[in-house]
Design goal:
This protein is α/β, with parallel strands linked by helices. The protein folds into 2 domains: about 160 residues, Rossmann fold; about 120 residues, N-(1-d-carboxylethyl)-l-norvaline Dehydrogenase, domain 2 (Orthogonal Bundle), CATH 1.10.1040. It has 14 helices and 9 strands. The strands form 2 sheets. A 6-stranded parallel β-sheet has the order 3-2-1-4-5-6. A 3-stranded mixed β-sheet has the order 7-8-9. α8 links the parallel β8 and β9.
């Protein structure tokens, strides 16, 4: 079993750390908000005073933080994770930070330290069941070393060289965000045309949107969006997608519009609700017609 430094114990990170503890790994944990590690300490994790301290005894270090700024904050500087990593150790960057952030991180690695980017697809239920899909970029030997740890969280898939995991995650998130935005606009159109909501869902059940419409129907009908993946994080991910498209010289008009809906929903105070609450924002323009 491995000694793992785990940095970032929010909703997803804390559940990932719990599964690693249950698999028998030794964990040193750090989070900016200490209260978020107390449950892990009760399960046998060791408290570290800084990311550097967490990494100092670890074979493998994992970062699972909110965004690029948080990643830089926990990895750089005198007390940062990179300052504590030893030659032969392996860093798994499992946040959704984008390929540019991964490649930038690679330029600051200490000698003898390897890096994999390994963002996850799935949310709270999937991580609790150990059913995450994990897209991994990096050297094959490093992937083999990390696989026993990653397998406690879900199914790791090696998708190419360093940065490929982050790219694969952008593709996955782009599809989720784009389909949700399309569903919202189709339902808004239904309301604008005066078509009853039941009829709209019956029609959608015959289309490529069938599965997504069925999954979101109860939330649309009740305006209840149980939090699984915060809308503010989905907005951040959508902006990573559109930025990557711009960097590649692509016109991603549909995905740009989906990102704009998420920004509007966050500005409307829905940032801490589930990302599917973007449907509430989209449907607000035609709610009277539904």
């Amino acid at each position: 079993m491995s000694h793992i430094a785990f940095i970032g114990t929010g909703a997803m990170g804390s559940r990932m750390a719990q599964r690693l503890l249950a698999a028998g790994h030794e964990l040193s944990v750090w989070n900016r908000t200490r209260s978020r590690i107390e449950g892990l300490l009760a399960l046998g994790a060791h408290e570290a005073g800084s990311p550097r301290a967490a990494a100092s005894q670890a074979d493998i270090a994992i970062t699972m933080v909110a965004d690029v700024n948080a990643l830089e904050a926990v990895t750089r500087g005198q007390d940062g994770l990179l300052a504590g990593l030893r030659p032969g150790s392996l860093l798994l960057e499992m946040s959704t930070s984008g390929p540019r952030a991964v490649l930038d991180l690679s330029t600051h690695l200490p000698p003898g330290v390897a890096l994999l980017d390994a963002p996850v697809l799935g949310s709270l239920q999937e991580v609790e069941r150990g059913e995450l899909h994990i897209f991994v970029g990096g050297a094959g030997d490093d992937f083999a070393k990390a696989s026993p740890v990653l397998s406690a969280l879900g199914t790791p898939l090696h998708v190419g060289p360093l940065g490929s995991g982050a790219k694969a995650k952008l593709l996955a998130n782009a599809s989720l965000i784009g389909v949700l935005g399309l569903l919202g606009e189709v339902l808004a159109l239904s309301g604008g045309l005066g078509l009853p909501q039941d009829t709209a869902f019956t029609v959608l059940s015959r289309t490529p949107l069938a599965a997504q419409a069925e999954r979101r129907r109860a939330s649309v009908e009740t305006s209840d969006y149980p939090p699984r993946f915060a809308l503010s994080l989905a907005r951040k991910d959508a902006e990573l997608v559109t930025a990557a498209g711009e960097q590649a010289g692509l016109e991603l008009n549909l995905l740009t519009a989906a990102a704009d809906w998420l920004r509007k929903a966050e500005a409307a105070g829905l940032g801490q609700r589930d990302y599917a609450a973007v449907l509430q924002e989209i449907l607000g323009q035609s709610r009277k017609g539904l």
